[in-house]
Amino acid sequence: MTDPVSRKGSERRLEGKVAIVTGAGSKTSSAGDSLLGTGKAIAVQMAREGASVLVVDRHDDRAKDTCRMIENEGGKASPLVLELTDPSASRRIADTTLERFGRIDILVANAAAYPPPGFLDLTQEELETVIAVNLVAPTMQSQAVIPAMIEAGGGSIIYISSILAMRGPCQAPYAASKAGLMGLVTSLTNAFGPQGIRFNCVAPGMVDTPVRRALAEKNNIDLSKTGQFRGPPLNIPGDAWDIAHATTFLASDEGRYITGHLLPVDGGTTTRMF
C-alpha cells in the first residue's frame, strides 16, 4: 500500500500552507537570543517547513523581530499587532490572513496570560483577563477561521495548553483556563471533523523560555533548585523547539489521522504521581 503522505527528498511538511500563530513574539531573555518563547519557535519552525505565517502579538517590536528571523531564513511572514481581548481581534486575525495570504490552513492559539500569585487575593477582573486570553480568545479565533478552513478543504487547529492544567501546584485561574481548551477540542473535533478540520492540544512541560524565567524571578523561585518533584524522567531540559516540533507535526499531513487529543511534551513528567 502506498503511503498517502510520503515525503520525497527535501520536501517540506507545510509547503504551500498558511499558518496563524498567536503570541508569536518573544520576550527578551538575559540568556541571549538563543532562548525563544514557544510562539516564536513555532512560527519559525512552521516557516522552515514551508508555511507562510501570520505572526500575531501584542508587541510590535517582538512581532517584527520574529518576522525578520523568518525572512532572514528565506521564509514568508507578516506581523499583526493587536490585543486578543479586543472583541474584534479574532475577526481581524482571520480577515488579515486572507487578505495577505489568500487562505487559512493552520491556527496555533499559543498566547497566554498569567495571573498574579495568591488565589485569595485574586480579583474578578484579573480572573476574567486570564480566561479572556487563554480560553475565550482561542474559542473566538477558531470560530473566525473555521469557514476559511472548510473552504480550503480542511485544516488543523492546535491549542497550546500546559501540563499545569493536569498537575499541580499551579495558579488556579491559569490551570482552569488551560484545562478548558481540552473541552473545546473534544467538542469541535466532533462538530467539524466531517469537514476535514482537526483539533488538538499540546501541553508543554517545564520548558525553558523567557516567560518562565521572568515568572520565576518575579516569584522568587530558583529554577536551579526545583528538586525531585519537578524533574522529568528523561532528566534533560526542554525548550521551545521541543514544543515547536510537536506542534508542526500535528499541523502537517503526517498528523492527518490525529485529532481530539492532548499531547504532553514534558519529558515524561505526567507519568509521575509526585
- Going by CATH, the homologous superfamily would be NAD(P)-binding Rossmann-like Domain
Q: Give the fraction of residues assigned to helices.
A: 25-40%
Kindly give the count of domains: 1
CA-to-CA gap between the ends?
45 Å
Gyration radius, in Å: 18 Å
> Which sequence of strands runs across the widest sheet?
3-2-1-4-5-6-9
Low-pLDDT stretches are: none
Task: Report on this structure.
The chain is of the alpha/beta class. It has a single domain (18-266), classed as Rossmann fold, CATH 3.40.50.720. The chain contains seven helices and nine strands, in the order βαβαβαβαβαββαβαβ. Strands 3-2-1-4-5-6-9 form a seven-stranded parallel sheet, sandwiched between helices. Helix 6 links the parallel strand 7 (207-208) and strand 8 (238-239). Helix 1 runs parallel beside helix 2 (60-72), helix 3 (89-101) packs parallel to helix 4 and helix 4 (124-152) runs parallel beside helix 5. It is globular.
